[in-house]
Fold:
Amino acid sequence: MNEIKLQRSEAASAQAIQRAIDALVPAGGRVVLPAMELELDRGIELRSGVTLAGQGRDTVLRKAPGCVYPFSGYHNYGMCDIPLMHTEGLVPGMTVAVRDTRHGGFYETFARITWVDDNWVGIDKGIHSDYHAELNPVLVTAFPLIYGENVRGVAVEDLTLDGNREAQPAGIGACRGAGVYFIAGHDVAVTNVVETGFSGEGIGFQLSRDVHLEDCVVTDNAGNGYHPGAGSTGVAFINCVAESNDMAGFFFCVRANHITVRDCRFAANRGPGISVGTRDSFNLIESCEVSHNEGAGILFRACPRPVEPESVWVRNCRVAANGRGGAQGQVVVLGDAHDLAFEGNTIVGAQGLDLPALYAAPSAQRVWLSNNEMTGCSPAIVSDSGALIAENPVAEAGVEAVEDRHYRHLVAVQAAAARC
Structure:
């Protein structure tokens, strides 16, 4: 395998690291960073077949302080340029986000600056929405520290990432960014990465398949800790930690399926420990510690049919002392969720707080409970008796059960990654 080991003098900027990554295209290989601390004025973009590695806690990549650049007026969807009030400090190669007071999600734009001409900047992709002056559109120097778009066979290893949250006047939304972020990734690995203080999500990915995260820690982020989203399938989170994030420790997003979360810890987050929602199905949560989160330990969000979660198996987990910020139970099942299995879990109440171990809304159906130990919860279970069933309804769950047919909704994504 081709390998480029950078000395400190050779890794003096994000641009220099990017040159090393680009030099490995198309054959691929490894870029190894030295022990160092480096401030990033732009995101580092991975290419297919490339691994970016560091020296663990001794290699710290820190986001530079952010800036906000107001638009000078309206600009329309699809344009690869942006009119600004001023462009001081912006140079080609920097990564930026475009947002306003209304548009979020995939309507936000993440792009790289290609040119600067007076008070206009060019970007490498068309803006994803019309941006109207009355909605205060802005360009912000917010970006993932490490990211990949339409990539396959990439890895991030042994790095410490600092989002420098206190120096960011604006962040980037979860659908377009995170401290580590992938969109349309295929065969992605993130190992032994510590990420903290990002003005947004910790580690997130969209429209991706065959993703493996192991021995990662995400803390003190403005959004969720981990965020697999937008149809991501065939994913494993092993021995990962999310603590003290402003939202959920772990947020399953739309149609995040066949995901295994094993031997992980989600603690002291200001939302739920684990949040499951729209079409998030065939997932396995096993041997995890979920404790002292302000929301529920595990929350199934209020999703109606036909986008309800189903076939989720929670086993051998410890769920304890959650809910002080407002929750209906340690484990809460809302909406039309069905075919849920809870087996061999230890569920412990928060001292001085009367919450059930399990609260299931009247609309929930086919919930199986087996060999769960429930202590300090009052009452133990709140559920319609007809919702509880005697046999496990989950026939398949987790990455271990994924088959080729489960990726059919990502066919166009796979084709794009294969071309890179």
Q: What stands out?
A: The mean pLDDT is 95. The longest strand covers residues 152-162. The chain has two domains: 3-63+143-401, 68-140.
